[in-house]
Design a protein that fits this description.
Layout lengths: L15 E2 L2 E2 L1 E2 L10 H14 L9 H21 L7 E4 L2 H11 L7 E5 L8 H10 L2 E5 L9 H7 L4 E7 L11 H10 L3 E5 L11 H4 L3 E5 L10 E5 L1 H6 L10 E5 L2 E4 L13 H17 L1 H20 L4 E3 L8 E6 L4 H10 L2 E2 L1 E3 L4 H6 L5 E5 L6 H18 L1
Parallel strand pairs: 3-15, 5-6, 5-7, 7-8, 8-9
Antiparallel strand pairs: 1-2, 4-10, 9-10, 11-12, 13-14, 14-17, 16-17
Helix pairs in contact: 1-9, 2-9, 3-4, 10-13, 11-13
The structure holds pyridoxal-5'-phosphate (PLP).
């Protein structure tokens, strides 16, 4: 296990909520920032805040250098072939929308997604399908929330032009075999996008080994601020595909007769980006790497095991997702609405999420409107799991 003292690196976790020390278990929604990340943001605004790429003065040059250094750090963290494959976006949703707006499809083409997807990896594809006459097909999952690989193979046909699948389910913590799925799709000539919003905080990422064409994630789920995200794309595809948003930065030359476009990544970065957010995200990766991703993974695995074991013993509880889930543990207490359970737990200082987790089709698959979800980060402790279990038990006696 990682030392309990790691929590001290996260100032927000030192506070009390409802008179109880805060136990923060809503990390799949947004994780907390360590002092090193807050300090990187603060230094940016105190020392180098300026617009990038366009200025000759000192601050503009310093901000540009910090921004591009951040891109280099992020590229190295995810194993990009070159930093030019790393596009700054406002988040995972923005990154997926970008891809869904630069790929053209024909009527009858198919976009293959899965039952486990977050709305962010459903709706942009539905909008693309509406625009083009393409069709959405969906990989089903079993009672454990595990994707049916046989169904996946039979749904992957010559009509399948895009596979967009989440690496880790934000609702159930299911880890999909994305490497194998991407390999099958690539062999089929299908463009692949992996939603890594819930993978990047927990797993080592190597886009070369993964083999996908696109990977999307958000900074705020991986110990960095909100409003920053990444789209990684294979360079030759980014070079071939058209731009999306128009504006400054994404151009080579503009005349009233027409415009030529910049090379990737700038071609996809119209307007002033979230400069501080990118720098802070790089600082978050530096911080995670100083701890070690494998240590983070082992620690979180132990937390998950302990949580599933202790919650699983509560009478009337149902745990969703497979045993080897990571990050998120969804559960329901028979006869209790998830909202009531979440509210009572919060009064005991334990922050969990309730609802559909932006996965309404997944909830519909299980015939429910939502769950209560505890989601873990490496700063969580076994003591936090005890607090969660005690709170759920207490709530159960009050509500049943
Ligand atoms: N994909 C997954 C799997 C998520 O969990 C989330 C957020 O919860 C998103 C996409 C969307 O991320 P954001 O709201 O940061 O754009």
């Amino acid at each position: 296990m990682l030392p309990v003292s790691l929590k001290l690196d996260f100032p927000i976790l030192g506070q009390s909520v409802n008179g109880k020390p805060l136990v923060y278990l809503d990390n799949a929604a947004t994780s907390q920032n360590p002092s090193a990340v807050i300090e990187a943001s603060r230094r940016y605004y105190e020392e180098i805040n300026s617009n990038i790429h366009r200025g000759t003065h000192y601050l503009a040059r310093a901000a540009t250098e910090a921004h591009e250094n951040a891109r280099n750090t992020i590229a190295a963290h995810i194993g990009a072939a070159t930093p030019n494959e790393v596009i700054f976006t406002s988040g995972c949703t923005d990154a997926i929308n970008l891809v869904a707006n630069i790929i053209s499809l024909n009527p009858g083409d198919e976009i293959l997604i899965s039952t486990l997807e977050h709305h962010s990896n459903i709706v942009p594809w539905q909008m693309l399908a509406e625009r083009t006459g393409a069709k959405i097909t969906v990989i089903p999952c079993d009672e454990d929330g595990v994707l049916d690989q046989a169904a996946f193979k039979s749904l992957l046909t010559e009509k399948t032009k895009i596979l967009a699948v989440t690496w880790v389910s934000n609702a159930f913590g299911t880890v999909n075999p994305v490497r194998e799925m991407v390999a099958a799709a690539k062999a089929n000539g299908t463009i692949t996008l992996v939603d890594a919003a819930q993978a990047v905080p927990h797993l080592a990422i190597d886009v070369q080994a993964l083999g996908a064409d696109f990977l999307a994630f958000s900074g705020h789920k991986t110990y960095a601020p909100t409003g920053i995200g990444i789209l990684w794309g294979r360079l030759e595809l980014l070079e071939q595909l058209p731009p999306w948003r128009g504006g400054g930065e994404m151009i080579k030359e503009v005349t009233f007769e027409g415009t030529t476009y910049n090379a990737p990544p700038f071609k996809y970065e119209a307007g002033t980006p979230n400069i501080e957010g990118g720098i802070a995200l790089a600082a978050a990766f530096d911080y995670m790497n100083a701890i070690g991703i494998s240590k983070i993974h082992d620690h979180e695995e132990a937390l998950m095991r302990a949580a599933a074991e202790s919650l699983g013993e509560i009478p009337g509880i149902r745990l969703y997702g497979p045993v080897d889930r990571i990050g998120a543990l969804s559960f329901a207490l028979e006869g209790v609405h998830h909202y009531d359970l979440g509210t009572l737990i919060d009064q005991m200082g334990v922050a969990v999420r309730t609802g559909h987790h932006c996965c309404q089709p997944l909830m519909a698959r299980f015939g429910i409107t939502g769950t209560t979800r505890a989601s873990f980060a490496f700063y969580n402790t076994l003591e936090d799991i005890d607090s969660l279990t005690t709170a759920v038990k207490k709530a159960a006696t009050m509500l049943l």
